[in-house]
UniProtKB/TrEMBL annotation:
It holds the Pfam family PseudoU_synth_2. This is RNA pseudouridine synthase. Residues 92-227 form the Pseudouridine synthase RsuA/RluA-like domain. Signal peptide: none annotated. It comes from Shewanella intestini. It comes from the Bacteria. Coiled coil: none annotated. Belongs to the pseudouridine synthase RluA family. InterPro entries: PsdUridine_synth_cat_dom_sf (IPR020103), PsdUridine_synth_RsuA/RluA (IPR006145), RluA_PseudoU_synthase (IPR050188).
């Protein structure tokens, strides 16, 4: 099956034609397809030094503006399971991110990202700002800011490691009892994780493990567990999973911190039914 993939860049020379019409004329795509792409974050508008996604079809253009379309039908057709709000703290909230939902968009779209989902579906409706990231294949708790002040303050806690967070993973093999600390570098940068066995399932030869990380490197938990010989179930990148394997068994389960807005201690734990389970 082939999918349309088009990149288009236009310099605006007249204010008499809107963005949808310009892009349709240039690409041959229907206006309806352009509008859908616009809603899903595939159209960008540059005004001076500022480049932002353009979502309003009727936004007035100025001579000298630049329009960019990154159209990939396969990307635009992607759909994900909805996220679920679990805790609402007003200026920020905590959501369950399902498998497949992204933490960050690309030039091709942002319609499958958690912050875009929250912006469109949060009740009452509020702005949504990404505070931290979680792998596309991972699941679990994510903090979303609703004001710039809250976002900045909570993001600072992540940067300074001034909060406690735990993950749960299911790994292949019988993980050792007690707490195991792993300090293998990730991407040539120092990284430290602490892993503790919760339960061993002998029939499957799999272990449920709690992991606390002291650093936040990309794929840190997956790389550290694999480095010990206990790859995460469902890990197709660092483990031994294939297309028939279950989804990645890595879940963000717990946050504890002193709220920078109220200065009270906050504890947020993922409900049991959303935590990883043996299959």
């Amino acid at each position: 099956m082939s999918f349309e993939k088009i990149q288009c860049h236009i310099k605006v020379t007249s204010i008499d034609v809107d963005a949808v019409t310009l892009l349709a004329q240039e690409t041959g795509l229907s206006k309806q397809k352009i509008k859908i792409a616009m809603q899903k974050g595939a159209v960008w508008l540059t005004q001076g030094k500022q480049t932002l996604r353009l979502r309003r079809a009727k936004k007035a253009l100025k001579i000298g503006n630049e329009l960019d379309l990154y159209y990939n039908q396969q990307v635009l057709d992607e759909a994900v399971t909805p996220a679920e709000m679990l805790f609402d703290e007003g200026e920020y909230s905590l959501w369950y991110k399902p498998y497949g939902m992204r933490s960050q968009g690309s030039k091709w779209s942002d319609h499958t990202t958690i912050d875009r989902y929250v912006a469109l579906n949060c009740q009452p409706q509020r702005s949504a700002y990404l505070i931290h990231r979680l792998d596309r294949a991972a699941t679990g708790l994510m903090l979303i800011g609703h004001t710039k002040n809250a976002t900045r303050a909570i993001a600072n806690m992540f940067e300074t490691r001034n909060l406690t967070k735990y993950y749960q993973v299911i790994v292949h093999g019988k993980f050792p009892t007690g707490t195991v600390s792993i300090n293998t570098d990730v991407d040539n940068k120092p990284a430290l994780s602490h892993a503790t066995l919760i339960e061993y399932q002998a029939q499957l030869n799999q272990s449920l493990v709690s992991v606390k990380i002291e650093s936040g490197r990309k794929h840190q938990i997956r790389i550290h567990m694999a480095s010990l010989g206990y790859s995460v179930v469902g890990d197709r990148l660092h483990g031994k999973a294939d297309e028939q394997s279950p989804n990645l068994k890595l879940t963000s389960c717990y946050f504890e911190f002193t709220c920078p807005l109220t200065h009270s201690v906050k504890v947020f734990e993922l409900p049991q039914h959303l935590q990883p389970s043996f299959e």
